[in-house]
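Cont'd.
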Amino acid sequence: MEIPKTYDPKITEDKWYSYWLQHKFFKSVPDNREPYTIVIPPPNVTGVLHMGHMLNNTIQDVLIRRARMQGKNACWVPGTDHASIATEAKVVALLKEKGISKTDLSREDFLKHAWEWKEKYGGIILKQLEKLGASCDWDRTRFTMEEDLSEAVIDVFIDLYKKGQIYRGVRMVNWDPQGLTAVSDEEVQHKEVNSKLYYVKYKIEGSADEWITIATTRPETILGDTAVCVHPDDERYRHLHGKRCIIPMVNRSVPIITDDYITMEFGTGALKVTPAHDINDYNLGVKHKLEVIDTIAADGKMSEAAKFYVGEDRFTVRKKIAKDLEEMGQIVKVEDIKNKVGYSERTNAVIEPKLSMQWFLKMDKISKPALENVLNGEVKLIPEKYVNTYKHWMENVHDWCISRQLWWGQRIPAWYDNKGNTVVCKTKEEAIQKLKGINSEVKSEDIRQDEDVLDTWFSSWLWPISVFDGFKNPEGKDINYYYPTNDLVTGPDILFFWIARMIIAGYEYKGQKPFSNVYLTGIVRDKLGRKMSKQLGNSPDPIELIEKYGADGVRVGMLLCAPAGNDLLFDESYTEQGRNFSNKIWNAFRLINGWETADVKQVPANKTAIQWFEAKFNEQLEIINDLYSKYRMSEALMATYKLVWDDFCAWYLEMIKPEFVDGKSLPIDQETYDATIIFFEKILKVLHPFMPFITEEIWHLIGERAEKDCIIVAEWPNTSGKTDEIVKHFDVVMEVITNIRNIRKQKNISPKEKLQVFEKVNQGEVISTYDEIIIKLCNLSSFEYVTSNVDNAFSFVLKHAEFFVPLSQNMDVEAEKERLSKDLEYNKGFLKSVEIKLANEKFVANAKPELIENERKKQSDAMAKIKAIEEQLAGLK
RNA sequence: GGGAGCUUAGCUCAGCUGGUUCAGAGCAUCUGCCUUACAAGCAGAGGGUCACUGGUUCGAACCCAGUAGCUCCCA
């Protein structure tokens, strides 16, 4: 069978993915093995795969595949999040295209559309994960709004309400006028923008022509002003204390109050107070018992209460009122300034602070164990620097606003009668009963359920418990076996939204952490460091990348540029490197595959090569294991990469590769062949977590395999643990080889011309074990030992010996002299630095003995080397 | 405004408790090779005042202080 020169992922990926599925290798059921569990950060059900998903799911898959190979019962639970705001926004947009407005629909009809849409498009992202090779147990796929999970959410709400942890209150919330819902503080992004600062003068009541000038960036809120505030110590306004002024246009008389909250330096030092539309003003309003006039409606347009511009958008009004005030002569001046404005993370609309009735979860008590157990390392955050951020947040945690003015989500189980009584319970029947207990007159048609739904995070915070039915069946097999899970892999941007809250819920409902380790990935940015976004169009389509470079190539590419915990600047060249690596592995396979064995004796060089690689492999595998244990994924990958490319392909295979004679490859001895196959299998295993497809393909090509003998379930190689001297010896051999090759290159000698090399050993014993290997890798005709210098030869000096390469051509003596002189100078400098150190009494007195010993050795080595170089120089005529 | 962190080769990053010539890796670059596994390759080479300034120390990329620039989080 002809094997193509380049690896083609297209013919292997789908094939093996379905094979794995068919043989249920991803499936996990509790048994007596040690569990290894990851719950996926559920992507939005409406979402499509982006680079951030690629990164964290690649990492999760690497972890889960390695655990599986280590014999653990690996379980990766997939699923999606109902993402109330995002999904509802998409459904609304879709309906709008069809000419249907949300307000024309009943709640039930809207939800019907939403579910239809979810069924049709939802979960595309999970299909995409398959392309990446994600080995999730798809039978366990969950959805945060499915019946069981929703029930858990409602039960938790009721439970916390009963515990007195949930309350309803009027609060200034971050209102998203586009999404028509409140969003949490964490979902508001503050961006610096260019604004105008308007200086507007208000007339002092009862005066002929006395004015007070305030500065504001939001003149449209003037209509809702109910006071003007100055600092009590501000001399400029002392005479106005206790007086009143007139709000322009609406001609309302409001008090001039004093408060030391005011910054005298900002603007004019006089602040207009609009309690309905600014959180600080609201607090001032509460303190000074000011009237609240809500002039901006939910949709961001002026309300009836504003009296002017009713029904016009707040930003239009800002321009209009500025113009109108200008015409009235009440604008003093306008300045350009930069200030921070809050934007909704979901809809990117400018947040409007707004007073409304919301449900809250008290955070002070419930969050305590979640803080403690991160600080004491019970739950580890990786990298550790996030512990600080976490601590800071948890110590200053605000109550969590858990209601959202949406339909898509779990509806709040609170019921009201017409007299203002409230009960919290699961069903309407229960509510009727309870309310009748309070108010015997009440009729069931007067009973209404709260219109709002719960924040999406109020369901996803239960995820590690609810996916194992830990609420429905607290003593179930699954929850007891898989919980607490092992690792969570997600981005630091949701440290508070999600991670912190899962930890809180874990302790509140299971009395245990939800996971032991949290691996926080970086944020994927483009080459210029910009966040990947649709608007910028700087995000490559992951599926296209997979088609171009293969899933294995993309996985490798992602991890190559993903240093632990740092943002990563993604560039397609990394995936190209990943693809090239696939190809390298493929060709190593082609080489080995092409060998014919024969009943020939194993040459000693092959035996040495095998011993060396065995030792090298063990050494590197230990390093790789250690890097995994520290979650240093990109470094584990790089170590694997070098083990395969450099040690296995560039050195080992070149050493044992049979020679070509008369256009035919000589056969290889059986012993070496067998050892090589075993090495190659081990290499494939170590590669498998990173590159599942190509390794599975080759696994089956290099040997006859039983149906279930797949690399995905092969055993992770063991290490012997012993360090072998041969690796050290070989480092010197490699140095010799590189030096000889270097001479060849520098002197422009064709690689086909065979060279002679002589070694003069100056210290230590002669080790000739590697001579044949040197001969082969440097294309030598002979490698011999001498006791004196060889004339008319290029030379180089290593620690223990001198090497001579006699030249057929005439030697450029001057050039050689110069080269040796340089080398001599360098070594003299080195010796000097060592001697200075040793002459330093304080160093000798303070440094560790072994360190001093080492310095002495360096000294004698350097002296020997200098002597050798000097002799060679003297020999050059 | 408050807090956290970062600055090492052209790029992306390692460098654990200060001590081997400790200044490293991958990519990129340069040079030579179409050597029957792979040009998506092979062989070799050149790149850095470890942001800056001072201090501690026998010894500093590493510890301390200050300066500059950048990033993130919170208000």
